UniProtKB/TrEMBL annotation:
GO terms for cellular component: cytoplasm; nucleus. InterPro entries: 5_3_exoribonuclease, 5_3_exoribonuclease_1, SH3_12, XRN1_D1, XRN1_D1_sf, XRN1_D2_D3, Xrn1_helical, Xrn1_N. GO terms for biological process: nuclear-transcribed mRNA catabolic process; rRNA catabolic process. It holds the Pfam family XRN1_D1. Keywords: Cytoplasm, Exonuclease, Hydrolase, Nuclease, RNA-binding. This is 5'-3' exoribonuclease 1. Residues 1-227 form the Xrn1 N-terminal domain. Residues 826-1051 form the Exoribonuclease Xrn1 D2/D3 domain. Residues 1079-1148 form the 5'-3' exoribonuclease 1 SH3-like domain.
Length: 1490
């Protein structure tokens, strides 16, 4: 329903009302109701602005089914799933439907004409006419058939669906979708055995669902809708998968409490007569006064002009004197309503007094007493005839107030005469207006509380009366005649414009177009719209004639006999159907679209019909009051748990991307009654226990640390242990430390962040925070095997640790968890033929089927037959990916090749707006964007294959260069103008094409047409936070997968397995990550382990993208699956086999291979080769991986000097006493002792020519210019001393060499525990004010404060690392232990890669690892060993002199974990290896330990 702006206003006034949720955060519901029309519209025409958009009917049906599947999976209703499609609407609604359809047809026509005028070539296929989403059309009949098929299919095949009753109320059942749902809820509520704790979820996009939900007076009622983004462009495309969609969950439980606060003043005045349920009923009525679908809005009463606060304040002032309420359970108390409107009518006068001054000014200019001359004459004539009313003639000395009243009356007369078109505004006319309006309000109340009371009633005007004219209504008798709903074809003819006549049966079409048609006047080809005080065009009144029912039916009568049999079948009303699963029923259900949806061979569905009047409740029905003894359900928030006060204040709370402008209901947390909060006491109460955080949207969390900014109490647990210590017999293992200065600053930052978030997003003032809790959120529950074959459902906690203010935490509440099927023993958990997955080695990730285990289950084992398919060989592709990937360059390289400035490259790759006219004389506000739109800095989005964003700059591919070259060739004059006027935001046609013979509009149309015809216009953009593989590499992966399929060598393995190594996909375990230790990288092989989801269970695939998130559970992996499947996406692949999935949906097969030390893996051998100037220029290799976040391990060469020292040595830079000795020290520290002599003989990189350094003297200092062996010239920054200038130039030269592939190593990483650091792009010249650390370019002032999960930023290194668990499931997880881990995502380039099979003999007991490691790991390990034996800082100075100078702002290096010293090679194993080849296992993330 249209209550424009209501949803936004209500969400901003009550900031905690709607909660942004992802799939895993949605609570448990009993009943799910879908208002289907919103879904149908989204899936059929997601973007009306795009006139080129075309979609097939099959695609629409498939998308709708996919969307329904996802919503069902997300909500997982326990009892009822109700799908309601709009049927024939009441006559009152048809007027609005008619206006909408006429406007949409006109807008579509205008958009097409505009596109053709610009010279755009439109597709030849017919566009989808959204007007066909109307009951009775051929499209809706076909959709209904497919919905029936969908329900039969899901109930027959999906276990989740088999537990619920599915109601399908289609387009043939009369009534609007949401009102058919409410009929069902009212009927259930009236049943004697109704459960007051039923949890309802209603999905829909209309704001009136808030009112509908509140009329039920059910305590646990939530509304689900997609996230609404205000302020964006209409043309923004909807996110591809519902899994990625952010939802808003609006809790009516909170809405009820906020309404209670809004009218809290009345409690003191009414005393015991204060009844919240009646207040809510009146609140619903007040909402109808500002907007609804059935009667026009009152003049000047607009939500964005604070109409609702005015209504509320008036109500508060009037109610105590009324002796009752306005809305008595859907019946209007006319006496009280009249008194309320009398008080509200003062607003009319106040509004007029504001415009009165303006009217007087106009009058003085125009010379007419009334702006509308006809109104003035009519008023005088009427006054003369009736003797009523005082009309001024010319006496200026009349009293001001009399003049005001006269002017006010005339002002209203003008409104009625111009808007409604009456000649004389008589008392009879005004009384009739008042009666019609009040009748409308009563009809709406009945409709919401009792269902349709009249199918034929409608409000007969386009405009509503003034509030001050709705008088003398207390004596009205309001009765309604029920009548009958229109038949579908009657409604079609009543609401469709002539432009959509193809949707009608042929025999009726001429009635819309023939001049001889008796109803032709109802179908004007052109019509006017009137904003009537509104701001948006879609809010305007559509001025088309009302349909006269009698004339319409008479005109149709004589053609009804011409309907075909199929059309007659469509033109009927049918009952709602309810479907349920019945195992005993078994028949074949025939599909009407067999090419898309196959027949259901074994259909087990029972169908029943529900009579149309079965759910009607009597007018006297009163909704059951709320049961206040109801249990607290997780996910249904309440404001009751924490003591607070409330008040209204303009605080600029940000609910929708920008600060709210109106008042917000602020909640101010009161100090604890327990007195001062002491850290020791808090720790003893909550440490190691579970509490509820993020009030009022409570989430359960396990507290791992407590701190007051000086001391910290934390759990001392072994890695991987996440126990809840809730029994007195098992106290938590607590340790106490004092915080360092740095940690104290971090604590203060945490407090500031929490305070800001509560205030700015939730409107909650948390006041002073004395104690901060650190905790891990609950992710789900998992069955854990215990002794004697028993299993328990244990809570699983996130790896990520978040901070919470103690005063916002709720302890000791009784929570209701639903009684889901709970398994008690291994027999119950693993019955025969259950699908399971292996989470141990061997066969890690293999899908299997449980066999008869009765003989081994007593020993705590389960017998399983696993299927182990042939895996595709991706190793060669990983090593040769540089041949296929897109190469990116900085803008200045493209600019030099194109002969333009880098500014133009940057400008044209984004947006460029051209306006009409000239800069001095612009014509109108119209702007056309003629930029390439390949980068979106504000939205942090890039276009894969064209642009890529790094920390400091944008990079461009050769495709952008070609595009710009063509642009430059075709329209060079645009480049000239932009170049000359670089400071302008908008450029103008007449300035670009000033010649008289040049037509600027035509040129702009030519440019836009050329841009739209180019393939780049249809390529979707991606977040810059996404690590991705390019389309060419994805294609190669597809080829490798197809090759593996040819072999078809799936083997079956029968094993007995310990139950803790098995993962069974269960509803209770959704959200639980199967293997919390798994790490993900690009190219990893994975398997989907979720049942009943879009991707078939057990389907394998390859990671082709990683999208980071602020929380680990929200990380998404782009997976290219091995097979196509229904609902699959085309993610840079040739067929719909891609999908985006969270970590809880996957098991990482490659990770299993990495940790399995028994398997013989291919080992990549990296052979460094000399890079001469000649072969560099001939090869022009730009990098191993196109992505600045490469999944490769960086490789450092054994036995060579650090790159900076090499350059410093060559440039003869004085290193202040650390030159010779430290260079030898560094060389030796990088290799193991027995190899020192031999390995120092060879450098990994041979330089044919020595770099040359020249000093340039400038006015402000010295600059060192370095000419490298490959001809590149590098300038350092300005410095005061010669040695500084040379040293910094050497460092810049080193960065440059690394970016173009010389193979120079960088200094070791300052963050040894980090994975997937995003390096500087290949071929990029990093800006001079940054620091290059192992491929990561950082600003000197440190790193970003809020890194994304999955994105690589250095972790904060606390002195006690307790808050960080072991390596998590998400990329970028902070891991304190492995000092040997190298940053994934940066690499030094070696040119050819060779692969050899290395088989390591298993009988060498002294060899601690079965895999080869690069020398770089040995270097890092040895440095970490040194670091343990030296004081902190000293080891850095001795072993890494150059990084101590370069990386000073970031020099907080954590002490290495002692465990790292025990792993890796023994000197013996290292010395036996050939020294020309360096072995690198590209899969290894860390040194294997045994």
């Amino acid at each position: 329903m249209g209550v424009p702006k209501f949803y936004r206003w209500i969400s901003e006034r009550y900031p905690c009302l709607s909660e942004v949720v992802k799939e895993h955060q949605i609570p448990e519901f009993d009943n799910l109701y879908l208002d289907m029309n919103g879904i149908i519209h989204q899936c059929s025409h997601p973007n009306d602005e795009d006139v080129h958009f075309r979609i097939s009917e099959e695609k629409i049906f498939a998308d709708i089914f996919h969307y329904l599947e996802v919503l069902f999976r997300i909500i997982k209703p326990r009892r009822v799933f109700f799908m309601a499609v709009d049927g024939v609407a009441p006559r009152a609604k048809m007027n609005q439907q008619r206006g909408r359809r006429f406007r949409s047809a006109k807008e579509a026509e205008e958009k097409i004409k505009k596109a053709l005028d610009k010279g755009e070539v439109l597709p030849t296929e017919a566009r989808f006419d959204s007007n066909c989403i109307t009951p009775g059309t051929d499209f809706m009949a076909r959709l209904q058939e497919q919905l029936k098929y969908f329900v039969h299919n899901k109930l027959s095949t999906d276990k989740l669906w088999q537990k619920v009753k599915v109601y399908l109320s289609g387009h043939e059942t009369p009534g609007e979708g949401e009102h058919k749902i409410m009929e069902f809820i009212r009927s259930e509520n009236a049943q004697p055995g109704h459960d007051p704790n039923t949890r309802h979820c209603l999905y829909g996009l209309d704001a009136d669902l808030i009112m509908l939900g509140l009329t039920s007076h059910e305590p646990n009622f939530s509304l689900l809708r997609e996230e609404v983004r205000f302020g964006g462009k209409k043309s923004q495309k909807r996110i591809t998968t519902p899994e990625e969609t952010t939802f808003h969950l609006l809790h009516l439980s909170l809405m009820r409490e906020y309404i209670d606060y809004e009218f809290s003043e009345l409690k003191g005045q009414l005393g015991s007569d204060y009844d919240l349920e009646r207040i809510i009923d009146d609140w619903i009525l007040m909402g109808f006064l500002v907007g609804n679908d059935f009667i026009p809005h009152l003049p000047h009463l607009h939500i964005n002009h604070d109409a609702l606060p005015l209504l509320y304040q008036t109500y508060i002032s009037v109610l105590p004197r009324l002796g009752g309420y306005l809305n008595e359970n859907g019946h209007l108390n006319l006496r009280n309503f009249e008194k309320y409107l009398e008080k509200l009518a003062e607003f009319d006068r106040e509004h007029f007094s504001e415009v009165f001054v303006d009217l007087k000014w106009f009058e003085s200019k125009v010379g007419n007493k009334y702006l509308n001359e006809a109104a003035g004459l009519a008023a005088e004539k009427e006054a003369a005839m009736t003797g009523k009313g005082k009309v001024t003639t010319g006496e200026e000395e009349e009293e001001d107030d009399d003049l005001f009243e006269t002017e006010f009356r005339q002002y209203k007369r003008t409104y009625y005469m111009t808007k409604i078109g009456v000649d004389v505004v008589s008392d009879e006319f005004l009384a009739n207006q008042a009666k019609s309006y009040v009748e409308g309000i009563q009809w709406i109340l009945h409709y919401y509380y009792h269902g349709v009371q009249s199918w034929s009633w409608y409000y007969p005007y386009h405009y509503a009366p003034f509030l001050s004219d709705i008088r003398n209504i207390s004596g009205l008798k309001l009765t309604f005649d029920l009548g009958k709903p229109f038949m579908p074809f009657q409604q079609l003819l009543a609401v469709l414009p002539a432009a959509s006549m193809e949707l009608l049966p042929e025999c009726y079409r001429h009635l819309m177009t023939s001049e001889s048609s008796p109803i032709i006047e109802y179908y004007p080809l052109d019509f006017k719209t009137d904003l009537n005080g509104k701001q948006q065009e879609w809010e305007a009144v559509v001025l088309i004639p009302f349909i006269e029912e009698r004339c319409l039916l008479a005109a149709m009568e004589s053609y009804n006999h011409k309907l075909t049999k199929e059309e007659k079948d469509r033109n009927r009303h049918t009952e709602c159907a309810v479907y349920s699963y019945d195992e005993e029923i078994d028949f074949t259900y025939t599909s009407t679209l067999p090419q898309l949806f196959p027949d259901i061979v074994h259909c087990h569905v029972r169908k029943a019909h529900i009579p149309m009047d079965a759910w009607q409740v009597p007018l006297g029905h009163v909704s059951r009051g709320v049961d206040h003894s109801a249990l607290y359900f997780c996910g249904f928030p309440t404001l009751q748990h924490i003591r607070h006060k409330f008040y209204k204040k303009k605080s600029g709370v940000v609910v929708f991307q920008q600060s709210s402008r109106g008042e917000n209901m602020m909640l101010d947390i009161l100090p604890s009654q327990e007195g001062e909060t002491i850290c020791d006491d808090v720790a003893s109460q909550v440490l190691g226990k579970s509490v509820f955080v993020n009030w009022p949207h409570l989430e359960e969390a396990r507290i791992t640390a407590v701190s007051d900014g000086e001391t910290k109490f934390f759990l001392e647990e072994p890695p991987g242990v996440q126990r809840v210590y809730d029994r007195p017999s098992t106290p938590p293992p607590t340790k106490v430390t004092y915080l360092s200065d740095k940690e104290q600053k971090e604590w203060v930052k945490d407090v500031q962040g929490i305070t800001e978030n509560f205030l700015k997003r939730k409107g909650i003032v948390i006041n002073e925070t004395a104690v901060v809790l650190y905790g891990q959120l609950l992710t789900g529950r998992k069955y854990v095997p215990k002794a004697n074959g028993q299993v328990e459902l244990e809570k699983q906690w996130s790896k990520q640790v978040l901070s919470f203010a103690y005063q916002t935490v709720v302890k000791d509440i009784k929570v209701f968890y639903s009684s889901l099927t709970c398994f008690k023993s291994l027999d119950e958990l693993f019955p025969i033929s259950t699908t399971v997955f292996m989470v141990g080695n061997p066969y890690y990730g293999a899908m299997g089927e449980v066999q008869d285990s009765s003989d081994v289950i007593k020993d705590g084992r389960v017998r399983v037959v696993f299927s182990v398919p042939q895996e595709p060989q991706l190793e060669p592709l990983i090593q040769n990916q540089h041949k296929y990937c897109v190469k990116y360059n900085p803008g200045y390289i493209l600019a030099s090749r194109l002969g333009i400035t880098s500014y133009l490259v940057s400008r044209f790759s984004g947006s460029i707006f051209i306006g009409r006219g000239s800069k001095k004389n612009p014509c109108g506000e119209q702007r056309t964007n003629v930029g390439l739109n390949l980068k979106f800095s504000k939205k942090n989005e890039e276009v894969p294959g064209y642009t890529k964003r790094t920390e400091k700059e944008w990079l461009y591919s050769s495709a952008v260069e070609e595009l710009l070259a063509e642009y430059l060739d075709r329209f060079s004059e645009v480049f000239d103008t932009v170049s000359k006027n670089s400071h302008d935001d908008v450029f103008y046609e007449d300035d670009i094409w000033p010649g008289e013979d040049q037509n600027g509009a035509e040129k702009v149309a030519e440019i836009t047409s050329w841009l739209k015809s180019h393939p780049v216009s249809s390529i979707s953009r991606a977040s810059c936070d996404l690590q991705i593989l390019d389309a060419t590499i994805v294609e190669k992966i597809e080829e490798a997968v197809e090759k593996a399929k040819v072999k078809k060598s799936t083997k079956k393995v029968r094993v007995t397995v310990k139950p803790h190594l098995l993962f069974r996909p269960l509803e209770q375990q959704q959200g639980v990550v199967p293997d919390p230790n798994a790490e993900y990288r690009l190219f990893d092989r994975v398997v989907n382990i979720r049942e009943s989801f879009t991707v078939p269970v057990g389907l394998r695939g390859t990671i082709i993208g990683i999208k980071g998130a602020e929380r680990e559970a929200e990380v998404l992996y782009e997976v290219l699956f091995d097979e196509e499947f229904a609902g699959g996406l085309n993610i840079r692949c040739t067929s719909p086999r891609g999908y985006r999935l969270p970590p809880c949906a996957l098991i990482n097969l490659s990770y299993g291979g990495r940790v399995d030390h028994t398997s013989h893996k291919l080992t990549a051998i990296v052979k460094p080769q000399p890079v001469t100037g000649a072969n560099f220029n001939s090869r022009q290799v730009a990098g191993l991986n196109h992505s600045p976040r490469s999944p490769f391990l960086p490789t450092q060469v054994r036995g060579k000097m650090k790159g900076t020292l090499v350059l410093k040595e060559m440039l003869k830079i004085d290193s202040s006493g650390t030159g010779g000795s430290s260079s030898q020290e560094t060389t030796n520290s990088g290799v193991q002792q027995p190899n020192r002599r031999r390995s120092s003989k060879k450098l990994g990189i041979e330089l044919t020519t020595t770099p040359q350094a020249n000093l340039l003297t400038l006015p402000f200092g010295l600059v060192c210019q370095v000419k490298l062996s490959n001809g590149l010239m590098v300038h350092g920054p300005q410095c005061q001393s010669e040695s500084d200038a040379k040293e910094k130039a050497a460092f810049f030269a080193l960065q440059r060499l690394n970016s173009v592939g010389s193979g120079f190593p960088l200094p070791p990483p300052l963050y040894p525990g980090m994975s997937q650091i995003r390096p500087s792009p290949i071929g990029a010249m990093p800006p001079s004010n940054g620091l290059m650390l192992s491929g990561l370019l950082l600003a000197p002032q440190a790193y970003a404060s809020a890194p994304l999960w999955g994105m690589a930023l250095p972790p904060h290194h606390h002195q006690s690392q307790t808050l960080y668990g072991p390596a998590g499931t998400f990329p970028g997880a902070a891991r304190p232990q492995p000092a040997t881990t190298l940053p994934i995502g940066s690499h030094n380039q070696f040119i050819p890669l060779q692969v050899t099979k290395k088989r390591i003999s298993a009988n060498k007991k002294n060899q601690e690892s079965r895999e080869f490691y690069s020398a770089a790991q040995t270097v890092t390990r040895n440095q970490s060993q040194k670091a343990q034996n030296q004081p902190f800082g000293q080891s850095q100075a001795q072993s890494e002199p150059q990084s101590s100078k370069v990386g000073q702002p970031l020099q907080h290096v954590s002490n290495s974990n002692p465990s790292s010293s025990t792993s890796g090679h023994t000197p013996g194993s290292a010395s036996k290896r050939k020294h020309r080849k360096l072995a690198v296992n590209f899969e290894a993330a860390k040194v294997a330990e045994q």
